[in-house]
Amino acid sequence: MSQIPPAGPASSAAPAAPSTAEADRSARFEVFTYDDQIVRWFVIATSIWGLVGMLVGALIALQLPFPEANLGEYLSFGRLRPLHTNAVIFAFAGNSIFAAIYYSTQRLCKARMFSDAMSRIHFWGWQAIIVSAAITLPMGFNTSKEYAELEWPIDIAITVIWVVFAVNFFGTLWRRRVKHMYVALWFYIATIVTIAVLHIGNSLALPVGMFKSYPIYMGIQDALVQWWYGHNAVAFFLTTPFLGLMYYFLPKAAERPVFSYRLSIVHFWSLVFIYIWAGPHHLQYTSVPEWAATLGMVFSVMLWMPSWGGMINGLFTLRGAWYKLRDSVVLKMFVVGITFYGMATFEGPALSVKTVNALSHYTDWNIAHVHSGALGWNGFMTFGMIYWLVPRLWRTPLWSQKLANWHFWIGTVGILLYILAMYTSGITQGLMWRAYDDAGRLLYPDFVESVVQVIPMYWVRLIGGLMYLGGVVLMLFNLFMTTRRAPDQLPDPAVAVPRRVGAGGDGQAGGTPALA
C-alpha cells in the first residue's frame, strides 16, 4: 500500500501523454481514498463528552460527603448519577469506539466506508441521542434499568442508528479488497451483533405515555434479563471493541507484530462464548434461583483464562520494545490500560464467587471495580488512541509531548487514589454490616454508622477523580493547540493498492497490521 503524493505546482506547459509505465501502473494499481473526516469528528466528540461525563462524575462524587452540593431537583444525585454513567459509557467510550472502528476498518479492509452518508447519519444521530439523554435523565424520565435508563422513544432511535452503523460496517467488509479479516474486525463484529441483540431484548416495553413505559418482563425474569444485558453491555461495549482497538493500535504504536496471532483468535472465540453467560453473578443472594447465580459464577471464573490471555498478548507485544515507553506517551497509556484490563478481569470473577460476594455485595468495592475498568482500561486506551491518531488525522505534530506526559501521570495517580479509596470504603462497609457481638446481635445496627465511617474515603475519591478530570482538561487543551496548527485543507488520503491484494490483515501475511 502506498499513499499518493500531492500534486506539484501547475505547469504552464500542456500535459504530456501518459507514458507506457504510467499506463501499466494504472492497470496494476487501484486508487481510492479513506474517509478520515468522520474519524476526526468522532475524536472531537469523544474528547468533549469525556469532559462533560467526568465533570458530572466529579459533582456527584462531591454530593456524597457534602450533601449541600445537591443543587435542587434536577441536579440531585439521583438525577445526575444515570447521566454520568450514560455520558461516560455511551458518549465518551461510545464515540471512541466509533473513531477506532471507522479508522481501522477502512485500513484493514483496504476500502473506504460503504456509505459516507451513513457515516454522517451515524455520527449526528448518536450525538442527538446523547443530547436527548442529557435532557431527559435530569428531568426524571428513567426506566430505572441500569445502563438502560433511557425511555422508549430514545431506545427506538438507538436501534435505528445502530442498524445504520451495522449496515455501513458490514457493507465495508463486503467491499473489502483483502481476503483475510484481521482479528480486530472479529471483535468489532461481535460488538455490533451482540449489542443489537442485548439492546432490543432488554428494552422491550409497553409504552404508557410519551416518556413512560413498563418492561414486558416481571420480577425475577426482569432482573435476569436486565443483568444479562447489563453485564454483557460491559462485555460487548466496553471490552470487545476496546480489544479490537488494542489489537490494531498497539502493534502500530509499538512497531511490533502482535505477540501471538493464534492466541488472539483463541482469545476472541473463548471470550465471546463464555462472557454471555456470566450476567447472573450480579444477582448473588437475591431471589434469583440458586442454580442461575451459580451458573453465572462458574462462567465468570472461566473468564479468567481468555481475559488474561488477551492481557498477556497485549503486553508481550512490547517484548523488545519496552525501552520505547520512555519517549512514547501513547505506549505508556496503552500499557496502563492493558494492566487495568488484567486487574479488572481478575477482580470481576473473584467478586462473583459467593464467599467474596457476601462481603462485597452492595458496597463501594463494586464502585472501585467498575471505575478501574471504565477509567483505567477504557479511559487510558482511549487516551492512547487519541494521542496516536491526532497527529495523523490533523497532519501536524502534537503541540506538547510534555503536557501529554503530565496527563499520563496525573491520570494514573488520580485513578489509583480513586480505586484505593473505594476498596477501603467497600471493605469497611462489608465488615461493619456483617459484624456481630457475642450475643449474635448486629454490632452496628444503625446504617448511618457505616456512612459516617466512609466519608473520609469519599473525600479521597473526589481528589482522585478531580486529578483524573484534570488530565482530561490537559488533553483537551493539547488537542486544541495541535489542531490550531493543522493545515487549512485536510483532504482524505489517497491510497494505491494492487488490484489483487493477497492474504494479510493490513497488507501483511499473518494478519498483523502493517507498520508503515
Automatic annotation (TrEMBL):
<keyword id="KW-0813">Transport</keyword>
<keyword id="KW-0249">Electron transport</keyword>
<feature type="transmembrane region" description="Helical">
    <location>
        <begin position="83"/>
        <end position="103"/>
    </location>
</feature>
<keyword id="KW-0812">Transmembrane</keyword>
<feature type="domain" description="Cytochrome oxidase subunit I profile">
    <location>
        <begin position="42"/>
        <end position="516"/>
    </location>
</feature>
<protein>
    <recommendedName>
        <fullName>cytochrome-c oxidase</fullName>
        <ecNumber>7.1.1.9</ecNumber>
    </recommendedName>
</protein>
<feature type="transmembrane region" description="Helical">
    <location>
        <begin position="375"/>
        <end position="394"/>
    </location>
</feature>
<keyword id="KW-0679">Respiratory chain</keyword>
<dbReference type="InterPro" id="IPR000883">
    <property type="entry name" value="Cyt_C_Oxase_1"/>
</dbReference>
<feature type="transmembrane region" description="Helical">
    <location>
        <begin position="406"/>
        <end position="424"/>
    </location>
</feature>
<dbReference type="InterPro" id="IPR023616">
    <property type="entry name" value="Cyt_c_oxase-like_su1_dom"/>
</dbReference>
<feature type="transmembrane region" description="Helical">
    <location>
        <begin position="228"/>
        <end position="249"/>
    </location>
</feature>
<keyword id="KW-0408">Iron</keyword>
<keyword id="KW-1003">Cell membrane</keyword>
<keyword id="KW-0349">Heme</keyword>
<dbReference type="InterPro" id="IPR023615">
    <property type="entry name" value="Cyt_c_Oxase_su1_BS"/>
</dbReference>
<feature type="transmembrane region" description="Helical">
    <location>
        <begin position="261"/>
        <end position="279"/>
    </location>
</feature>
<feature type="transmembrane region" description="Helical">
    <location>
        <begin position="185"/>
        <end position="208"/>
    </location>
</feature>
<feature type="transmembrane region" description="Helical">
    <location>
        <begin position="153"/>
        <end position="173"/>
    </location>
</feature>
<comment type="pathway">
    <text>Energy metabolism; oxidative phosphorylation.</text>
</comment>
<keyword id="KW-1133">Transmembrane helix</keyword>
<feature type="transmembrane region" description="Helical">
    <location>
        <begin position="458"/>
        <end position="480"/>
    </location>
</feature>
<feature type="transmembrane region" description="Helical">
    <location>
        <begin position="123"/>
        <end position="141"/>
    </location>
</feature>
<comment type="similarity">
    <text>Belongs to the heme-copper respiratory oxidase family.</text>
</comment>
<dbReference type="InterPro" id="IPR036927">
    <property type="entry name" value="Cyt_c_oxase-like_su1_sf"/>
</dbReference>
<dbReference type="Pfam" id="PF00115">
    <property type="entry name" value="COX1"/>
</dbReference>
<feature type="transmembrane region" description="Helical">
    <location>
        <begin position="329"/>
        <end position="346"/>
    </location>
</feature>
<keyword id="KW-1278">Translocase</keyword>
<keyword id="KW-0479">Metal-binding</keyword>
<feature type="transmembrane region" description="Helical">
    <location>
        <begin position="38"/>
        <end position="63"/>
    </location>
</feature>
<keyword id="KW-0186">Copper</keyword>
<feature type="transmembrane region" description="Helical">
    <location>
        <begin position="291"/>
        <end position="317"/>
    </location>
</feature>
<keyword id="KW-0472">Membrane</keyword>
<dbReference type="InterPro" id="IPR004677">
    <property type="entry name" value="Cyt_c_oxidase_cbb3_su1"/>
</dbReference>
